[in-house]
């Protein structure tokens, strides 16, 4: 948990949950696992506020609780998870993916679940159906069963999973989050120190049978005020549908696997051609559920199976497919490897190697944009040849000595290139030592990841700053919009409307437009940097798994 | 009547006679004579007189002093070189000889000093003298620009000193390299595009997008942009820089001996490629390229709130 990560988590918590939750969350991140009393004491907040913040954090999975370190009798300790909070940055990408795969229904289901953290299937289905009905044409409503079927599809492809049932920690501990709907109790479950992963439960992906018949309700205008008030709290629905106590959450790992597959496919398309990328897409789709997330490569697939599973629109003949597969195997990037000869040839997708290549391309692109294409040449040269002396670098890269020296020193000062000393004599005399330049991919990737976190934090802060600067203007425009809306509802004349609209002067309108443009730009920049973060994180995690 | 043997004796006290005799001996033995030979010929000659005669001949530049495993050798110097050195003294001759021995790689002044054991000032004077007489020349080495190596006037300096095809007058020709770089890349790229457009089976497409280093070499020679003759090795170094640019990839295949362009039974094939990802998200933000990234923090003089790079980027 580096300082940059903590800063970014704090900003994200503040934006999504408010300052109180931010305070509690950052305190937990900085100080590790702590029990309730210590948190209250050190943050200086009231008991109520701390309890509610912890509830929010646990509801969203950002915090977990477990029994204290001193044994079963000690108070529970709360532990905040930095990774989970950083996922908040990626919410737009998850929602967009759901939209492309499952349409508007899928998009709204994922959005609901991301906003609420953990919910039951029935409540999600109802809310989504209502929202969809809102946007549909007059007289049409959304049937619950349609939404349920999309929900089931999401569960089948493992994008959603059940929350693991939490052990009841003890009746007297009222601060345990038993108020939130996230604790169905298995009474007196054995206490274990590590919270169980959702996948360790056999029923993780089982859709419960529930009775839910009906259609979405369209909101009427008069219910507007009421709706806004209760939108923040989960509706206390008196009806029961047979799935009480089964709460669902979004399975982030599955989305990450999907993103990883997408990146590999687009890399193959860039390097080779469209058909090869389709073949790789087919191979990855076939191994979606059979490959574990940390696997080095997918399970071997025979060429016959691949041929049968290709999308029919592609119409590739069998010998042509074999040629494409041979080309993929021969490619120096080694996306696809051959694992045997049975069944017309067994092929695997080398996941870890693909991630390493993608991370390497990311590093090279950063050096190229920051320092120029000649420095990028030196960087790639050092990546290939590992250790080189200065004279050799100049010779291989064909760059004049003075400029090469300058570039190497710049890269060295930015810590992208390291110096390795090899002494000829036991006293490290400079005239009698070899100095070799080298690039280590993994530490450089980590360093760049921290820069990414800092960049995103900078972008968020800039966005908050811009909003704060124009706060007065924004409030004025909001007031005017509210007046306009109420006038329209009560049936005012056009002159009154134009009069109200003119209360915003033209330069102010322009200012508002620029502000909107800035905020959008900053938002999209955050998403772009998040893509880099995702690549680098996947690469670093893959090296962790294999080591 | 007693015969008085009149021996025609060389008047041994006459040094000129001694010298002439030694010279005749040298001519008899063109590969050189040792002290022993002179002694055998003139047994009555005292060592002192012999030494004096030899020294006189050496200083006149008519005799060459050499050393072999047996001892000292004296050899008659041919007249042409003798005339050249007329007017020079011993030390100059010594230095000249050392430089001659260095061949076309040249020799550094410090090495001359080691070999001749003469003091530095003397060496410098002698070198200047010889240069003015146009007997030697100084060539700047490309490895260390301050270092000058000396070699005989009419010799061609070796490739390692001048740096070969990429250096002209000790300057690295970066524009020349750049031009060659771009030309090779264009050639490979157009070949790859032609292969892609041909719409044949993928194997054939890929194979036709490859070019051997020999083909590239022929293309560059025909283009005629180079004043200097370039060898295939030179072209391969250029192609390697393209690999380090990430624009080209290389494979090695086994080729029959005797096919054009094969070296030791292998051929190198080059092919233009695209990068596998677009420029990454981090560099699309000003922070990714910011030179003062490490100094930036909230509340400081450089912070996200007052960052001028961000303001410019947002207004773009």
Summarize this entry quickly.
The complex is a heterodimer of chains A (547) and B (316). Chain A contains 21 helices and 11 strands.
Note down, in words, how this protein is organized:
- Chain A has about 550 residues and is mostly helical.
- Chain A has five domains: about 5-80, Winged helix-like DNA-binding domain superfamily/Winged helix DNA-binding domain (Arc Repressor Mutant, subunit A), CATH 1.10.10.10; about 90-110 and about 120-165 and about 245-250, Arc Repressor Mutant, subunit A (Orthogonal Bundle), CATH 1.10.10; about 255-350, Winged helix-like DNA-binding domain superfamily/Winged helix DNA-binding domain (Arc Repressor Mutant, subunit A), CATH 1.10.10; about 370-440, Arc Repressor Mutant, subunit A (Orthogonal Bundle), CATH 1.10.10.10; about 450-495 and about 500-545.
- Helices cover about 60% and strands about 10% of the residues of chain A.
- Chain A has helices at about 5-15, 20-30, 35-45, 45-60, 80-85, 90-115, 120-135, 145-155, 225-230, 250-270, 275-285, 305-310, 320-330, 350-370, 375-385, 390-395, 400-415, 440-470, 470-490, 495-500, 505-545; strands spanning about 35, 65, 75-80, 120, 160, 245-250, 300, 335-340, 345-350, 420-425, 435-440.
- In chain A, strand 8 and strand 9 form a beta hairpin.
- The radius of gyration of chain A is 28 Å and the shape is globular.
- The model of chain A is unreliable at about 170-195 and about 220-235 (pLDDT under 50).
- Chain B has about 325 residues and is an alpha+beta fold.
- Chain B folds into four domains: about 15-75, Winged helix-like DNA-binding domain superfamily/Winged helix DNA-binding domain (Arc Repressor Mutant, subunit A, Orthogonal Bundle), CATH 1.10.10.10; about 85-165, Winged helix-like DNA-binding domain superfamily/Winged helix DNA-binding domain (Arc Repressor Mutant, subunit A, Orthogonal Bundle); about 175-270, Arc Repressor Mutant, subunit A, CATH 1.10.10; about 285-315, no CATH class.
- Chain B is about 45% helix and about 15% strand.
- In chain B, the strands form four sheets. A three-stranded antiparallel sheet of chain B has the order 1-3-2. Chain B has a three-stranded antiparallel sheet with strand order 4-6-5.
- The radius of gyration of chain B is 36 Å and the shape is elongated.
- The model of chain B has no long low-confidence stretch (mean pLDDT about 75).
- Chains A and B meet through helix 10, helix 13, helix 14, helix 15 and helix 18 of A and helix 9, helix 10, helix 12 and helix 13 of B.
- Chain B: It is found in: Nucleus.
- Chain B: One of its GO terms (cellular component) is RNA polymerase III complex.
- Chain B: DNA-dependent RNA polymerase catalyzes the transcription of DNA into RNA using the four ribonucleoside triphosphates as substrates. Specific peripheric component of RNA polymerase III which synthesizes small RNAs, such as 5S rRNA and tRNAs.
- Chain B: This is DNA-directed RNA polymerase III subunit RPC6.
- Chain B: InterPro entries: RNA_pol_Rpc34, RNA_pol_Rpc34-like, WH-like_DNA-bd_sf, WH_DNA-bd_sf.
């Amino acid at each position: 948990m580096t300082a940059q990560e903590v800063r970014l988590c704090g900003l994200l918590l503040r934006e999504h949950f408010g300052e109180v939750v931010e305070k509690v969350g950052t305190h937990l991140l900085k100080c590790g696992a702590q029990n309730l009393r210590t948190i209250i004491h050190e943050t200086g907040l009231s008991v109520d506020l701390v309890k509610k913040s912890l509830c929010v954090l646990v509801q969203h999975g950002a915090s977990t609780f477990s029994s204290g370190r001193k044994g079963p009798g000690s108070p529970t300790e709360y532990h905040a998870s930095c990774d989970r909070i950083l996922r908040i940055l990626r919410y737009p990408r998850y929602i967009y993916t759901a939209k492309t795969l499952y349409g508007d229904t899928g998009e709204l289901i994922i959005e609901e679940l991301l906003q609420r953290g953990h919910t039951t299937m029935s409540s999600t289905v109802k809310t989504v159906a209502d929202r969809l009905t809102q946007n549909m044409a007059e007289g049409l409503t959304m049937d619950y069963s349609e939404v349920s079927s999309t929900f089931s599809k999401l569960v089948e492809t493992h994008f959603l999973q059940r929350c693991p049932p939490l052990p009841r920690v003890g009746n007297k501990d009222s601060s345990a989050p038993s108020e939130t709907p996230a604790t169905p109790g298995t009474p007196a479950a054995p206490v274990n120190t590590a919270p169980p992963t959702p996948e360790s439960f056999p029923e993780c992906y089982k859709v419960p049978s529930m009775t839910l018949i009906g259609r979405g309700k369209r909101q009427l205008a008069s219910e507007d005020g009421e709706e806004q008030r209760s939108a923040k709290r989960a509706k206390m629905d008196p009806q029961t549908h047979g799935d009480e106590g089964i709460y669902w959450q979004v399975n982030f790992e599955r989305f990450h696997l999907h993103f990883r597959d997408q990146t590999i496919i687009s890399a193959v398309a860039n390097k080779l051609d469209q058909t090869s990328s389709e073949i790789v897409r087919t191979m990855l789709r076939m191994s979606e559920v059979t490959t574990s997330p940390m696997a080095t490569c997918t399970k071997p697939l025979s060429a016959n199976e691949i041929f049968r599973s290709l999308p029919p629109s592609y119409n590739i003949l069998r010998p042509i497919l074999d040629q494409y597969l041979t080309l993929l195997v021969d490619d120096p990037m080694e996306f696809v490897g051959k694992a045997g000869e049975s069944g017309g040839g067994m092929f695997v997708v080398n996941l870890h190697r693909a991630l390493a290549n993608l991370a390497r391309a990311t590093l090279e692109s950063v050096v190229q944009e920051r320092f120029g294409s000649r420095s990028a040449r030196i960087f790639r040269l050092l990546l290939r040849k590992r250790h080189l002396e200065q004279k050799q670098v100049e010779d291989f890269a064909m760059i004049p000595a003075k400029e090469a020296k300058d570039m190497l020193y710049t890269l060295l000062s930015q810590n992208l290139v390291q110096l390795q000393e090899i002494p000829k004599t036991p006293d490290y005399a400079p005239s009698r030592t070899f100095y070799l330049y080298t690039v280590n991919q993994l530490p450089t990737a980590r360093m760049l990841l921290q820069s990414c976190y800092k960049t995103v934090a900078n972008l968020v802060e800039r966005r908050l700053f811009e909003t704060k600067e124009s706060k007065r203007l924004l409030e004025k425009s909001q007031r005017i919009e509210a007046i306009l809306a109420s006038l329209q509802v009560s049936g005012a004349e056009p002159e009154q409307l134009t009069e109200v609209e003119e209360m915003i002067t033209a330069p102010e309108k322009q200012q508002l437009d620029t502000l909107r443009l800035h905020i959008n730009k900053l938002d999209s920049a955050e998403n772009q940097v998040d893509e880099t973060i995702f690549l680098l994180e996947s690469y670093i995690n893959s090296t962790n798994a294999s080591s | 009547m007693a015969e008085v043997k009149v021996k025609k004796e060389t008047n041994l006290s006459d040094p000129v006679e001694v010298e002439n005799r030694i010279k005749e001996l040298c001519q008899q033995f063109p590969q050189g004579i040792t002290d022993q030979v002179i002694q055998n010929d003139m047994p009555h000659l005292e060592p002192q007189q012999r030494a004096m005669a030899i020294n006189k001949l050496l200083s006149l530049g008519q005799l060459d002093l050499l050393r072999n495993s047996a001892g000292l050798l004296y050899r008659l110097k041919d007249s042409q070189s003798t005339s050249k050195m007329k007017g020079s003294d011993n030390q100059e001759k010594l230095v000249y000889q050392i430089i001659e021995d260095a061949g076309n790689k040249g020799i550094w002044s410090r090495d001359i000093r080691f070999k001749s054991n003469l003091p530095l000032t003397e060496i410098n004077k002698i070198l200047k003298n010889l240069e003015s007489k146009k007997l030697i020349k100084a060539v700047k080495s490309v490895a260390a620009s301050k270092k000058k190596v000396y070699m005989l006037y009419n010799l061609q300096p070796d490739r390692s000193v001048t740096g070969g095809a990429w250096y002209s007058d000790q300057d690295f020709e970066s524009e020349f390299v750049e031009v060659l770089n771009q030309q090779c890349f264009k050639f490979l790229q157009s070949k790859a595009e032609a292969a892609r457009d041909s719409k044949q089976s993928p194997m054939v497409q890929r194979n036709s997008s490859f070019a051997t280093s020999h083909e590239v070499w022929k293309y560059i020679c025909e283009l005629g942009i180079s004043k200097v003759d370039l060898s295939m090795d030179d072209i391969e170094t250029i192609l390697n820089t393209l690999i380090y640019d990430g624009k080209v990839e290389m494979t090695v295949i086994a080729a029959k001996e005797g096919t054009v362009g094969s070296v030791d039974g292998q051929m190198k094939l080059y092919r233009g490629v695209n990068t596998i990802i677009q420029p990454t998200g981090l560099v699309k933000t000003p922070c990714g390229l910011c030179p003062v990234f490490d100094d930036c923090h909230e509340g400081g003089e450089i912070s996200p709130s007052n960052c001028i790079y961000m303001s410019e980027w947002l207004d773009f």
